[in-house]
Amino acid sequence: MSDFRIEKVQHALAVTLASGERMEGKVFLEPVARYHAGRQDPRELLNDEDAFFPFSVEGRLILVAKDHVKTATYMQPAGATPISSTKLTVRVHLSDGQDLDGSIEVEHRSDAERLLDFLNGFGGRFLSLTVDRSTQCLVNRHMIAGVQQR
Questions:
Q1: Of the chain's two ends, which shows fewer C-beta atoms within 10 Å, N or C?
Q2: Is residue 36 within 8 Å of residue 82, measured between CB atoms?
């Protein structure tokens, strides 16, 4: 085993699986993000191409399959920079009947001004929903039955 280790930043996360099981623990983030200034954010971790992520629950390490995560909720770090200034208030209807209310940030693109365009062009695994000023809820897009603009 190598003595060389890359330090990670632990970040609290609450995960709800497709089965309904809820777990609270910590994820391990990169101290420097790949595509922006500052550290990696849970949204980037869950939207990367890896199928599993390490999750620490009461000191036990669990390798969680991203495809089986329904939602992941976390507190937004202080001073986090939003993607854009365009926020749309929405209700997200999940396939299990649950509804989530919040807002999504829509990137400024000339070809995606409508909510429909944004959703059809979204390539990530998890849609980021701001449920209050400091709480982010990542919603597995494969478990979304519909989205209604409010």
A1: N
A2: no
